[in-house]
Predict the structure.
Amino acid sequence: MRPALPLLGCLLVWAGVGAAVLAGWLPRWSWQAVLAIVVAVALVDLLRLRRLPSPSVQRQLPEALALNVRRAVQLTLQAERTLRLDVFDLLPGAWQSEGMPRRLRLRPGFAATLDYHVQPLQRGHFRFDGVQVRLHSPWRLWRQQRVVPPALDVRVFPNFVPLTRFALFSAEQASRMVGAHLKRRRGEGTDFHQMREYRIGDSLRQIDWKATSRARRLVSREYQDEKNQQMLLVLDSGRRMMASDGGLSHFDQVLNAALVLAYLALRQGDGVGLHAMGGEQRWVAPKRGMGTIDDLLRASYDLQPQPVATDYLATATQLSVLQRRRALVMLVTNVRDEDIEDLLAAVKLLQRRHLVCVASLREQVLDHALQGPVQTDADAAQAGAAALYLEQRAQAHDALRGHGVMVLDVTADALPGALVERYLSVKRDGLL
């Protein structure tokens, strides 16, 4: 319960009467009478406010939201008596909102509908604790804050809107949409696809001589990339993924890129699995079918990077037990020169059975430090430090390549295209 401005105005009037009494303009009993009237009216109004029933509220909002995607929320309020109130939905955390708080007047028998928008800023599990209403007393001398149900638990997933857009295009078109540069080579692959007429440029190995003799014209065998292979996405959720570019943490950008790659690989007929290392560990065994995307989303939507070091060798040991079938292992991390010994040992263990690709994220601030103008001693020191760091990083990458590991050195915004391009390159070349 808190006094409202009209009650404070009444107290000012009473104080003015007191000043007039002191000046001898009014008798003393008038000051006491005004006080009695103000107190009586305030008490009656207070009791009436306490007896007012809280309004009923219904909230319309899906229980699954997408990260950084603006979403409409609808509140429907009803009351048994006429109410004046302010409404504020109790949002989780520091979510951004537009259209709150709102003031309205409810009448019995009528429902009031409020629309506003929210934008989740983090993935994970969150809760709307209810709706906060501030009731005004009938004579508007008091106001009271109440929290009314319903509460609501929601889950914020990675932004899967691009995946729904990819469904309208072929795998090749969707690959170009994420920035993958494809080099098509006709007639190559490992699985037989169809017979067709010979085309200029077909190799002699493609000609089916029996079919040619029957048809009395050259007939070629056409192959396609092998299907039913497996890809394992190994994502670092340790301290290296806590850096941010463009308002999103590296881990959020890695997760978005991994989902894009998983979607395209599933479209190609391959099985996709996921393993999170470093922080909290998660495991999803490789499976085929587009329903696997739902499994990957449910397993990773609340996964957050942790301020811990990533143990690459322990991860490789776990994967040697969990993933028996040969697979393309896409390990996404941020390689530093001090990690190279542990990472090399882990990669050698994985290479006994799997094809390994390491995608190493590079912070955009490093590129900006090298490309920016050098005008002061501080600028020169910063550029020199960035150049030294990148040189040591490149040496670590060269050490991995020297052991037959595919290495991608990319920024977070270029990661989806780089991953898709390397996956399709592996498929075209039949490396699995």
Notes: The mean pLDDT is 85. The chain has four domains: 2-50, 56-157, 161-166+173-182+227-429, 191-224. The two ends are 70 Å apart (CA to CA). The first helix runs from residue 5 to 22.
